[in-house]
Amino acid sequence: MTVLETRQRGEASDGSGIGGRHSRIDGRLKITGGATYALEHRLENLTYAVLVPSTIAAGRVTEIDTAAAKAAPGVLLVLTPDDDLGLAIASDWFGNRAEGNYRPLVPEIAFNGQAVAVVVAETLEQATAAASLVKVSYEEAQAIAGLDDPRAGDGNLVDNLTVTWGDAEAALVAAAIKVEGEYRTPREYHVTIEPHGLTAAWEGDRLTIFEPSQWTHGMARSYAEWFGLPYENVTLISPFIGGGFGSKASASFYGALAAASAKRLGRPVKLAITRPQTFTAYGGRAATRQKIALGASEDGVLQAIVHRGANETSMVGTWVENTGAATPLLYAVPNFSSENRLVPVNTVTPGALRAPGKNPSAFGIESAMDELAYALGIDPVELRLKNYAEKDPQSGKPWSTRQLREALAAGAEAFGWSRRSPEPRSMRDGHTLVGWGVAIGTFPVIRAYGEALIAIGRDGRVEVISGAIDMGQGTYTILAQTAAEALGVPVDQVEVRLGDSSMPGAAVAGGSMLAGVMTGAVHKAASAAREELIALALNDPNSPFRDSGANTLSVAEGLIASPRGDGPAISIAELMVQLGRDRIEVKRDTLPGALANDEGRLKAWTTMSLMRAPTDGDYSMHSWCTHFVEVRVDEDFGTVRVSRVVSAFDCGRLYNPKLVESQWKGGIIMGIGQALLEEGLVDPRRARVINNNLGDYLVATNADIPDIEVISVGVPDPHASVLGGKGVGEVGIVGVAPAIANAVFHATGKRVRDLPITLEKLI
Ligand code: MCN
Ligand code: MOS
Known about the structure:
- The chain contains 16 helices and 32 strands.
- The chain has three domains: 38-142 and 197-272, Aldehyde Oxidoreductase, domain 3 (Alpha-Beta Complex); 163-170 and 284-446 and 615-761, Aldehyde oxidase/xanthine dehydrogenase, molybdopterin binding domain (Aldehyde Oxidoreductase, domain 4, 2-Layer Sandwich); 449-606, 2-Layer Sandwich (Aldehyde Oxidoreductase, domain 4), CATH 3.30.365.10.
- The longest helix is centred in the C-terminal third of the chain and has 26 residues, at 514-539.
- A seven-stranded mixed β-sheet has the order 3-7-1-15-12-13-14.
- It is 24% helix and 24% strand.
- With 763 residues, the protein is an alpha+beta fold.
- Bound molecules: pterin cytosine dinucleotide and dioxothiomolybdenum(VI) ion.
- Pterin cytosine dinucleotide binds at residues 243-246, 354, 471-475, 478, 509-516, 651-656, 659-660, 663, 666, 725-730.
- This is Xanthine dehydrogenase family protein molybdopterin-binding subunit.
- Residues 32-142 form the Aldehyde oxidase/xanthine dehydrogenase a/b hammerhead domain.
- InterPro entries: Ald_Oxase/Xan_DH_a/b (IPR000674), Ald_Oxase/Xan_DH_a/b_sf (IPR036856), Ald_Oxase/xanthine_DH-like (IPR016208), AldOxase/xan_DH_MoCoBD1 (IPR008274), AldOxase/xan_DH_MoCoBD2 (IPR046867), AldOxase/xan_DH_Mopterin-bd_sf (IPR037165).
- Residues 1-21 are annotated as: Disordered.
């Protein structure tokens, strides 16, 4: 096959186009120290800010004595709730904006660890020492420590999360077989290796922020609005990010404090969140609980699902961790009822953590389905196939693509599921109980818009420029592959520049949408750049193709030639020289006509208001997965080890299978941590997260992780994205914890309904 034929089939001959297994281009920089992270920028005249956290969880600050701190060596500034920083309230994620003054420090205390002051000094050590000298007096009130605190109550119903069809309560009463359980997940945290923080620097009325960001444009907007600046006056720079998992998608109070301090001092300010503060400066996953009742006929056909969920939120903000997010999507059921409640407690407002909603939701429904399988005496895979949803049960729309049967079949086959003996405690290896469990998962396809600039230089090198980001998921690499393929150049001729809000617009790297958004934009811009190159080559008086009589040209492997192969074949660099051109730039966006104006663009790049829901349109679009897990439980000690995982996924077309496999495995690894280790422990007396460090808040490490096999059963989904891919980044974690809990039940006969599954729950 010739290069051209390969291109026409949409494959890269060297594995570097779309679908190729190219290694991460940023990988070497990240592991050799070549990547400069936000907190590593050494600006001249830099000063250091340190936060002073509250020691109570509820009440108010009555007095702050800053005299000793101000007199301490090197101290330049101490800010307290008494300081009006002159900031305006910024818009929320969706672009809604309230009037008023924004005060990042307030005397009312809503949670333990809330910042009550900030100290800025010449050095970090001086700022840290002075922060300990700030004396805060409080009037303490009774705190509500968490979801389980008896004072927390039942919370408030979230109206728009109520989902009903048929008559679930009546069908449940009438059903031959019923199971009912309450499932709980604790507070969980992102634990990014790179902690949060920023460096803020002013030059006149222009503000530059170096801050790890999942959304440079959205965060730049917040800074501009706080300080009343035109949007263009803020540049937020974030080329490398050491993990985000949902925690780096919005500008936060500490960013406002650092930027306001820098403005007052006329010097750049660095504010680094300490590891303990990563548990309070922004929220992790909210604790959840959900009651699920399933009713089925004796042959295992679901008749009713009744779901009652709740999550904790803070006293001052709303975070909905929708435990009913996956429940109505997974199975065909004629009667369904789901309600969700929000319970305010004294915590920092929780936030997005890999697969928000879907993740705890799957723990509930997929544990309950396993309980139903045992109650019926039906194999759990068979039960899932028996209740297969041929269309979206909630919206009634057809699936765009749903290879979930295929995923169950491929996973079961690769795992050897047919060799499972169904009885609990029936498989053992000496002193170890062996259990096999299965669960499924899903994550929606969210569509949004993007913009990319393609620049072709005099040396023939191609630049792809976008304000989108790469926090490790592979954006640099897949965009290089996309541009290489669309333009017809080798991938190493392409350089991708990301992570700067002054670059072309992009959606948030959240909701597993960025790859679909940005491959679409880059494909469009690179295809247009190719057309422009060809037009110049055919029409420019200095072009060697001018008199060739061809009406089009081919571009492949960086060479431009007549498609008939009978004329000259020259490199892009050579053509640029002959044309006397230094640079060709082509910018394209994927906005529909009605939005392709200044207002639409600003909305698209800086708010989430134009994101399209998975059922917006004729189809219901989601990624799907199945996890097959083997656990080994020590019969005496109750210790659980995951010894084998096989997971099969439908995420549509994969732009880079190597990176996708890594994303899936990353999600599964996080899911193993969630199932067995992770739990934010709150002291009920002080409502304080007590294991706020990497020694006590346990995440999975290499020794906890077995071989993981991942299988793709997806087919290109033309409705989901321009190139046919669906979201990948989050779906991998969904369903892992219930698959493990189900395997633990199979091994031990003990059903653990509250995560994590620690040994005391098994003995
Ligand atoms: N990809 C692909 N083919 C597809 C879809 C995706 O090859 N059809 C690959 C690409 O390498 C792409 C990556 O998967 O860069 C993720 O794409 P996508 O699913 O669109 O997700 P986003 O780019 O929007 O990334 C955000 C997503 C989310 S929401 C969380 S949370 C998360 C995740 O990515 N946080 C991560 N993966 C992470 N990976 C790392 N290393 N660090 C994080 O903080
Ligand atoms: Mo992911 S939690 O949507 O950043």
